[in-house]
Amino acid sequence: MAKILTKTVPAPAAETREQPAVGYTRRHLLWLRAKKTVTERHFWLGLLGVVVFFVGWDLAYRFELPRMEKLESPLYVFREFTLPPRGASTYNPALESKWGYGIWGKAWYTDIGMSVWRISQAFVWSLLGIPLGLVMGWKRSIRDFVFAPFELMRPIPPISWVPLAIVMFPSQEAPIIFLCTIASFFAVTLNTLLGVDSIDPVYFRAARCLGSSEWQIFRHVILPGAMPFIFTGMLIGLGVAWFSLVGGEIIAGTWGLGYRTMDAYMNVATPQLLIAMFTIGVIGMLMAVGLRALQRRVLAWKTKTGEAI
User: Fold this and answer.
1) What global pTM score does this model have?
2) The domain spanning residue 232 has which CATH number?
């Protein structure tokens, strides 16, 4: 009887069976992130802001408010952007675009390709400001030697460089790329320098007390500490490069979104002008979003410590 009472009963096989680990593919993870973004409050607030902007624009045009009666309705601009040009199908003014500048026209894609290519080259060249800013913040002697001419040239507007750029670079593309580079370069360099200056001196003293060499201090203290400011400088430099690109293409370009804005102005093609302007805005926003995604990936340690990026 005692043996019967003390006998242990084995657990059912279903209870002892281990649950299989759930594996997520990259596509599943992207879907979960997209679902989280769509369900967040700030996404819908941003979407509402865009809708209110276009509705307000349309109402201002319809009621002929001051300075708005000379523009076009956003619905008409969207129609010009999405309908095929005249001659692409059976001639029907109601179903064809007047100016032919949009998703059905080759000129729109050519302008995008030229502008993005110029911006990409200028942005890559402007990244030379990162090592310059790091070295200026690391070595006081180099900073004293370089900072004076740097500050002398930094306040000069990018448009003021146009005649000099044309003289220095007689080709067609080089002056435009130079204007974008020179504007973005100063923003990247200065923010990198400010990033090095923002590092607490305690970290330098602690690293030296632990026997770190100058290279180890640069690699493990200066570079990670300045990285948030470096990305901020890259974002600012990207925006400034777009400003300069429009001015450079207006003056010295034959293709590109900036050139198209001036060409549309000269031909009184308001829908074409607005399409080029909004295309610049959308492409610049997408570039900034990609750069911020890279920032969150590189600076993942800041989110783990509770700091917002």
Assistant:
1) 0.80
2) 1.10.3720.10
